[in-house]
Amino acid sequence: MSLDVAEIKKQFPILDRQINGRPVVYLDSAATSQKPRAVLEAMERYYELHNANVHRSVYQMAAEATEAYENARHRVQRFIKAPSEREVVFTKNATEGLNLVVQSWGRANLREGDVVLLTHMEHHANIVPWQMLAAERNLTLRWVPLTSDGLLDLTDLDRLLDGAKAFAFTAMSNVLGTINPVRLLADRAHAHGAIAVVDGCQAVPHLPTDVAALGADFLAFSAHKMCGPTGIGVLWGREALLDAMPPFLGGGDMIRDVRLDGFTPNELPVKFEAGTPPIAEAVGLGAACDFLTGLGMANVRTHEMQVVGYAIEQLTQRFGDDVTIHGPRNVEQRGGALSIGFKDLHPHDISQVLDQSNVCVRAGHHCAKPLMRLLGVSATARASFYVYNDEADADALCDALADADTFFSL
Amino acid sequence: MPGLEDLYREIILDHYRNPRNRGELPSPPARRAEGFNPLCGDEVVVFLDVAPDGTVDDIRVSGQGCSISQSSASMMSAAVKGKSADEVRALVRAFKAMMSIHEHTLEGEDDGAGATGEGDGAANGVRLGDLEALRGVVKFPVRIKCATLAWNTLLQSLDEEPAAS
Question: Do A269 and A341 lie in a common domain?
Answer without folding.
Answer: no
